[in-house]
Specification:
With 99 residues, the chain is mainly α. It contains 3 helices and 2 strands; from the N terminus they run E-E-H-H-H. A two-stranded antiparallel sheet has the order 1-2. Helix 1 runs antiparallel to helix 2. It is elongated.
């Protein structure tokens, strides 16, 4: 028997909960990075802001795709999420490498 709530399966509910937790953590990190950037304007902090922002956008997009519940969009959250994560990790690598 599979858990279902409001038409969403257990996997989708779990994914939405995880993404909401990610949004909370990333929002906190973004707040701290922006606060730090306002004090010390360096490229490393700007890179961290972009990194957190891209992952935050990715989480919102993933929740949006899950909630649309359209069959042809099933593979798209993974695909788009992978691209957003690749961009964020590339920024983190460049920032870390430079500083």
């Amino acid at each position: 028997m599979e858990l279902e709530l409001l038409g969403y399966t257990g996997i989708k509910i779990g994914t939405i909960i995880i993404e909401i937790m990610n949004i909370g953590i990333l929002s906190g990190l973004l707040y701290l990075y922006i606060k730090s950037y306002n004090k010390i304007k360096i490229g490393f902090t700007a890179g961290l802001i972009l990194f957190a922002l891209l992952l935050l956008i990715r989480s919102f997009i993933t929740i949006g795709f899950i909630m649309t519940n359209t069959n042809f969009l099933i593979d798209r959250p993974i695909y788009i999420g992978g691209i957003m994560q690749l961009m964020a990790l590339t920024i983190l690598l460049k920032v870390t490498w430079d500083y």
